[in-house]
Amino acid sequence: xxxxxxxxxxxxxxxxxxxxxxxxxxxxxxxxxxxxxxxxxxxxxxxxxxxxxxxxxxxxxxxxxxxxxxxxxxxxxxxxxxxxxxxxxxxxxxxxxxxxxxxxxxxxxxxxxxxxxxxxxxxxxxxxxxxxxxxxxxxxxxxxxxxxxxxxxxxxxxxxxxxxxxxxxxxxxxxxxxxxxxxxxxxxxxxxxxxxxxxxxxxxxxxxxxxxxxxxxxxxxxxxxxxxxxxxxxxxxxxxxxxxxxxxxxxxxxxxxxxxxxxxxxxxxxxxxxxxxxxxxxxxxxxxxxxxxxxxxxxxxxxxxxxxxxxxxxxxxxxxxxxxxxxxxxxxxxxxxxxxxxxxxxxxxxxxxxxxxxxxxxxxxxxxx
Length: 369
Known about the structure:
Elements: H1 2-8, H2 17-47, H3 50-69, H4 74-95, H5 105-139, H6 147-190, H7 200-217, E1 220-228, H8 231-238, H9 240-257, E2 264-269, E3 272-279, H10 282-298, E4 314-321, H11 329-345, E5 351-353, E6 365-367
Parallel strand pairs: 4-5, 5-6
Antiparallel strand pairs: 1-3, 1-4, 2-3
């Protein structure tokens, strides 16, 4: 019991606090309904009220069946239970003509309804419910109730509605603000501040998932690693501010080339980038990365200290991952990294890959066997 309660009350670790709070309330309503059935069954048995005892006894025995049938929709069962309790409360108020302080239980009913339905729907329910309660009580003023008691109850009822509404509204706003803050923190934790691309940490999270998805779906996943050629001399010549601007420009180019919802671009660190994108075949993957290499050079960012071009260029290592690949994500990363270094050693401004292609006279590509 202690473990269950500690789990239910850990609001802070939940991403969707509003719905989680409603779920906790639904569980408490069901527990309360079950305890009330137990209590009244015992009371009716003790008092010898056979019809009520058998009625409550049947409900008591059916309650576990209801929980089993609604195990995936416990909130629906909680809504039903709450409304039954609300109707029963009206009936008890009616047969007692508002005496014995019974109407004050409506305050708890309204507050629980505010939690379960939210502040907007809860307010509408409170207005309807109190209209019924106050109409009933008004009909007994001068008989079982005096007008002063009626006015006092009405004042407290209205105040309870206002307080319940305001508290739920403020909780709703706070949870929304916390959710937005959490989303911003998550975004900050996975976005590179300079380029706006995903960072290395997010790459580590995504890479394994994408490989597993590729193997399950029997699709092709292109994994490319890009590195800006001679970037240290570029920074030394033009300064780090211009170097940062070059990184941003290349990043924006990559975003413009890979715009599909399942395309992902990462800055692994420094001047190194990674691309993950779905392809139909290996040739498509090679053409896409080669188009990116051509587009980077076409940016015509001057690079006086480059040994192979007057402009900034990039080199690329490419792996096309299939369902048949038996390598782990670390081995796959290492393989692609080795292909990138082969492209650099082969002269830079080119792609090295292990795809089974025959692309003769294709000036950017180096086929690695």
